[in-house]
């Protein structure tokens, strides 16, 4: 019997290398979901944010398409947009997906709490937005949701920074949430290879000075999706 009660709103499905976070460089299946609750000025995936066009897929249909891209038990990345806008549908999806992949990740901006997904053996790559995003403080930092993520041992926090002031903002959030530094990283701001090259060394220095990790954007360097 099908578990799917409502379709996932899908923007795209593809097979590539994970470009960010603790599993960067790993071959991965990607499910990019449609829609976002923020409008960051530096967003490098604007398609899920604009317009009403998306592909409705049941969880079974989405899994079939993902596994047809490449067989094998690899990493699975659910990204967006903001995937947790579809949190209830994702619960059904991961009930089927978990046994089929060696690891599972959700990319999130941290404004929507994980809910029941927190108990489903998933890694959350949480990217709270800083002042350079152009989003108001109240919209981008939802403290009850961030506190839930910070309590999860498999939640990793990465902060897009474009200035030293933003690096300090990130550290203030980490201190407030009592997140172990080994679960944090500063990520270079840039929407293409040249911008990543320009900012990488400085971002790495800011990270090193604060005891945090550095997060590159491998997919942009390699010119892959």
What's the quick description here?
The protein has 225 residues and is of the alpha/beta class. It contains 7 helices and 9 strands, in the order βββαβαββααβαβαβα.
> What is the 3D form?
globular
The total of beta strands comes to 9
For the biggest β-sheet, the strand order reads 3-1-2-4-5-6-7-8-9
CATH superfamily grouping: Aldolase class I
* Unreliable residue runs: none
Share of helical residues: 25-40%
| CATH architecture label | Alpha-Beta Barrel
Through-space gap between termini: 34 Å
Strand content: 15-25%
List SSEs in N-to-C order: EEEHEHEEHHEHEHEH
- How would you classify the helix and strand content by structural class? alpha/beta
Strand count, sense and closure of the main sheet?
9 strands, mixed
Number of helices: 7
List keywords for this structure.
about 220 residues, alpha/beta, TIM Barrel, nine-stranded mixed β-sheet, 9 strands, about 30% helix
């Amino acid at each position: 019997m099908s578990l799917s009660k409502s379709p996932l709103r899908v923007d795209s499905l593809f097979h590539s290398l994970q470009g960010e976070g603790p599993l960067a460089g790993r071959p991965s299946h990607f499910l990019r979901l449609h829609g976002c609750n923020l409008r960051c000025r530096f967003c490098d995936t604007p398609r899920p944010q604009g317009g009403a066009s998306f592909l409705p897929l049941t969880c079974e249909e989405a899994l079939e398409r993902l596994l047809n891209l490449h067989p094998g038990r690899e990493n699975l990345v659910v990204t967006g947009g903001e995937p947790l806008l579809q949190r209830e549908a994702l619960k059904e999806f991961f009930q089927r997906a978990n046994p089929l992949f060696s690891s599972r990740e959700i990319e999130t901006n941290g404004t929507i709490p994980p809910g029941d997904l927190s108990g489903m053996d998933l890694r959350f790559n949480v990217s709270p937005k800083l002042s350079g995003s152009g989003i108001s403080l109240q919209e981008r930092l939802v403290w009850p949701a961030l506190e839930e993520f910070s309590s999860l041992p498999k939640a990793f926090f990465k902060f897009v920074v474009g200035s030293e002031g933003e690096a300090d903002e990130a550290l203030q959030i980490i201190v407030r949430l009592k997140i172990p530094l080994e679960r944090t990283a500063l990520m270079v701001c840039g929407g293409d290879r040249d911008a990543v090259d320009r900012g990488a060394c400085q971002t790495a220095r800011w990270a090193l000075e604060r005891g945090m990790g550095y997060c590159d954007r491998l997919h942009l360097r390699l010119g892959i999706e």
